[in-house]
Amino acid sequence: EAGVTQFPSHSVIEKGQTVTLRCDPISGHDNLYWYRRVMGKEIKFLLHFVKESKQDESGMPNNRFLAERTGGTYSTLKVQPAELEDSGVYFCASSQSRADSYEQYFGPGTRLTVT
Amino acid sequence: RKEVEQDPGPFNVPEGATVAFNCTYSNSASQSFFWYRQDCRKEPKLLMSVYSSGNEDGRFTAQLNRASQYISLLIRDSKLSDSATYLCVVNHYFGNEKLTFGTGTRLTIIP
């Protein structure tokens, strides 16, 4: 079974540009999460989708970040316009909806550098 | 105060030794507790869940003390392959909700 995949693995952009990150969860996983780790800090939650609906977006830093999950399959996270402080590693995770199985499986992350 | 606090280390431990990590959490309503392992430039992977009664998985033992809001991880007979960052992770609910991470404790096993 394929794991969570993310694209691209690395992205280097200039301040003010736009970047779109993509996450493909494990097939059949209704729950999809975005997390971010900035340099020297802990991994922090950004938002949670259940299928195509945003369940919790309390961690989104500001309105420059837009996440979508059309059709309840893959998700995109767009940063527009990017700022220097957006640099970090963006992780996506997915999990099943069963009450007895909620382990979150993480993707390899997208390393974003804003210069 | 951070929601989940860990000693960042680094812990440099000789192969075969026993090492213990601790973690404290601030939200007394937290329900689920985990240890994740993260190798350099890789994604976090679940090492083990932590239950109130304590649980063991091979060389790894996890303990939870709800009264003190404290979680521990013990690694016995450490191997070179145990070198990684160990993340203490808390979930405020049972089920599919956001995870709250500590900054991680870096462990290096020395041959």
Which structural traits does this protein have?
heterodimer; A: mainly beta; 7-stranded mixed sheet; 11 strands; globular; B: 111 residues; mainly beta
Provide an overview of this structure.
With 115 residues, chain A is mainly beta. Chain A is 0% helix and 48% strand. Chain A contains no helices and eleven strands. In chain A, strands 2, 4, 5, 6, 9, 10 and 11 form a seven-stranded mixed sheet that branches. Chain A has a four-stranded antiparallel sheet with strand order 1-3-8-7, with no helix packed on it. In chain A, strand 4 (31-37) and strand 5 (44-50) form a beta hairpin. Chain A is globular, with a radius of gyration of 13 Å. Chain B has 111 residues and is an all-beta fold. Helix content of chain B is 0%, strand content 54%. Chain B has no helices and eleven strands. Chain B has strands at residues 4-6, 11-14, 19-25, 32-38, 44-50, 55-57, 60-65, 70-75, 84-91, 99-101, 105-110. The radius of gyration of chain B is 13 Å and the shape is globular. The termini of chain B are far apart. The interface between A and B is medium-sized, with 26 and 19 residues.
Termini gap of chain A: 37 Å
Return Rg of chain A in Å: 13 Å
Query: Which structural class should the secondary elements of chain B be placed in?
Result: mainly beta
What are the secondary-structure elements of chain A, in order, as H or E? EEEEEEEEEEE
Q: What is the distance, rounded to the nearest whole angstrom, between the alpha carbons of the first and last residues of chain B?
A: 37 Å
Please tally the helical runs of chain B, counting DSSP H or I stretches of 4 or more residues. 0
Which whole number gives the mean pLDDT of chain B?
Answer: 92
The structural class of chain A is mainly beta
- The beta-strand count of chain A equals 11
Largest sheet of chain A: 7 strands, mixed
DSSP strand tally of chain B: 11
